[in-house]
Amino acid sequence: MEKNENVEMITGDPKKAINKLSIPIIASMFLIFANNIIDSIWVAGLGAEPLAALGYVTPLFMIMVGFGNGLGAGGNSLISRYIGAEDKHSANNAAIHNLILSFIVSIIITVIFLTFLKPLLVLMGASSVLDYAMEYAFIIFAWTFGLLVPPIVGGAFRAEGDIKRATVPIALAAIINMILDPIFIYVLNMGIAGAAWATAIGPFISLLLMFYWIFVKKDTYLSYSRKDFHNNFKMYKDILVVGIPASLEQLVLSVLTIFVNYMLTIVSGPTSVAVYTAGWRIVNIGMLPAIGIGTAAISVAGVAYGARKYENLRVTARYAVKVALIASIIVCIILYVFANQIALIFSYSENSAGLAPMIAGFLQIMCLFILYVPFGASAGNVFQGVGKGTISFFLTTFREFILVLIFAYLLGFTFHMGEFGIYCGMLLGGGIGSLICYACIELYINKLIRGREHAV
């Protein structure tokens, strides 16, 4: 099979591949997260109602983003396995199937959301700000194609080890959004519609750049030529077997947040929800190194599995956990030591000044959650890499929707520990669940190695 520098990297030493892939992924994720926060700050300048409208639309937007990331993981996994098996023809065909599937899914999501947008927003409680919410959401979902396809194409680039082309367009989209937000919202006086247009245009420009590389410059390792395409419904199935469960994992996490907010409201009222919302955003930033390293592991694991180099698969899982854990420990220490200073970000006004000590206390407890993420994220991503997306989804659901909620309820309500008990329960459930996830991937890899030895 013909190779280039990127493919040689992805099929070589798993440790070097993870190192090279993960850093740009983490950087692009950070830009996306920063862009989301900045977007909220600009919309907040329009008043409470537009900001609330943005909040109501966000869960629907995240469902769409989840589908994009999930299908990107599915395509990444399948293409990586073909590259590992040194079957470039099938890798090319899988990349084309991945692109076609992204077109189909974007059309379906556009039709569904635009058709049921108003009743969905009303059902979610947005009646008081419905005009603002509809104005923003209609633009967003009309541009689903430009928002959904880039992460899917980016997954194909990651599969061939071309991390530059996988991450530069994503970073570019975030930067364009940051620049256009104040121009559209305030200079052009477009209001919340301006925020929607800025959100839609950035990714669309990044998609045009991706298409330029693929169809005009034609210098990517994977070929998207018509002669490389042979319709194969099994390829669609193989992408969806990983892509759909990966997409649903985002839904599980969103539902978990709803339940946690509900429990906090019962024991401590809306103030505790505000503390959790603000503090959890910071904790999410702290998770980025582990999540980025885990995302890199999808490609590396897929290649190792496709090549039947199961020892490399073991190295991938263990090294991803090791590096992510080191990074997470550093982040955890920083959050604990500087909790008071970080809390000031969300308590700079007179109305929110009283939240500072509570947010700081939250950070000093929940920063420990970051230490568990490397085990669960790496295990789940390696399962996705080898095409076992259903196992990854089951483990995520078991960890987040069963263990975390059960322990949070037990400590918060049964043992009457209140808000502190809910946080401790989340730590306990998340920790146990993450370790179970990692134990499962170790057992799975050991089974693969033993099976090959017996076959020999």
Automatic annotation (TrEMBL):
Topology in membrane: Multi-pass membrane protein
Q: Which residues cross the membrane?
A: 21-45, 51-74, 95-116, 136-157, 169-188, 194-215, 236-262, 282-307, 319-339, 359-379, 391-414, 420-445
Q: Which domain of life is it from?
A: Archaea
Q: Which UniProt keywords apply?
A: Cell membrane, Membrane, Transmembrane, Transmembrane helix, Transport
Chief location of this protein?
Answer: membrane
Pfam families per the UniProt record, alphabetical: MatE
- Where is this protein found? Cell membrane
Report the GO molecular function annotations.
antiporter activity; xenobiotic transmembrane transporter activity
PANTHER family hit by this protein: MULTIDRUG RESISTANCE PROTEIN NORM-RELATED, MULTIDRUG RESISTANCE PROTEIN YPNP-RELATED
Identify this protein by name: Multidrug export protein MepA
Q: Which organism is it from?
A: Methanobrevibacter thaueri
